[in-house]
Design a protein that fits this description.
By secondary structure, this protein is of the alpha/beta class. The protein has a single domain, classed as Rossmann fold (3-Layer(aba) Sandwich). The chain is built from 6 helices and 7 strands. Helix 1 packs across helix 6 and helix 4 packs parallel to helix 5.
Length: about 230
């Protein structure tokens, strides 16, 4: 398979790349140094290229790089994201702009390039890292949940546009995952999902049968109660 992963320098993106090593991959994230180090941990035909998923110029450049290096994209894992958590009165306009530019605009920009490419080929799987907060809400999560609800609405609409095309689009919706994303934050890591739990869900989507088209997978830590 020819696989593109955004947000690939650490956390879920890197863990997915490691489980898929042996396939041809293009890995991208904003931090070029961390990305180069991450790419060095993965065996096989792996290419790295830094880029900001919220920049249309960067997305186009990285997409063209992926086509040049791989000849096409079979699977795209759109995993880049950012989150700030606090009461609404404590959040800033800059934090709003960064979350919606990365989490929502970034998905929009990638879909604009990936879908025409996959339509022409008559196949493809796109997976977007969303969140359980794209399906519900919680305190101190207003902007993050808002961005992920927007992602869910976008994906749901685009799935209808893709009917009969052979192109599949899905979200993975985890609860909190024990990754470097939470480094330096006062959180209970014992109550979080293991990153491999989420990787298993991503691989389930990639390996699903041709006759199925999974829309989303919601995965929560064991014992998590949902109203």
């Amino acid at each position: 398979m020819k696989i593109l992963i955004t947000g690939a320098s650490s956390g879920i993106g890197l863990a997915v790349a490691k489980r898929l090593q042996g396939h041809t991959m293009v890995l991208t994230s904003r931090n070029g140094d961390k990305l180069e180090y991450a790419g060095g941990q993965i065996a096989g035909d792996v290419h790295t290229v830094a880029g900001d998923t919220s920049s249309s110029a960067d997305v186009e450049r990285v997409f063209n790089f992926a086509i040049e290096k791989m000849g096409g994209v079979d699977v795209a894992f759109l995993n880049a994201g950012v989150g700030y958590f606090d009461n609404i009165e404590n959040l800033t306009e800059e934090q709003f702009d960064e979350q919606f530019s990365t989490n929502v605009k970034g998905v929009f920009l990638w879909l604009r390039f990936l879908i025409p490419h996959m339509r022409r080929r008559g196949r493809g799987q796109i997976i977007v890292t969303s969140s359980n907060l794209g399906l519900e809400t919680a305190t101190r999560c207003s902007l993050y949940a808002g961005s992920k609800h927007a992602v869910q609405a976008m994906v749901s609409s685009v799935r209808k546009e893709l009917r009969g095309s052979g192109v599949k689009l899905a979200t993975v919706n985890p609860g909190s995952v024990d990754t470097p994303w939470f480094d330096g934050k006062d959180v209970d890591r014992d109550a979080m999902l293991n990153v491999e739990d989420v990787v298993d869900c991503v691989l389930l989507l990639i390996n699903q049968g041709e006759s199925s088209d999974i829309e989303l997978i919601k995965v929560l830590p064991r014992g998590k109660m949902v109203d």
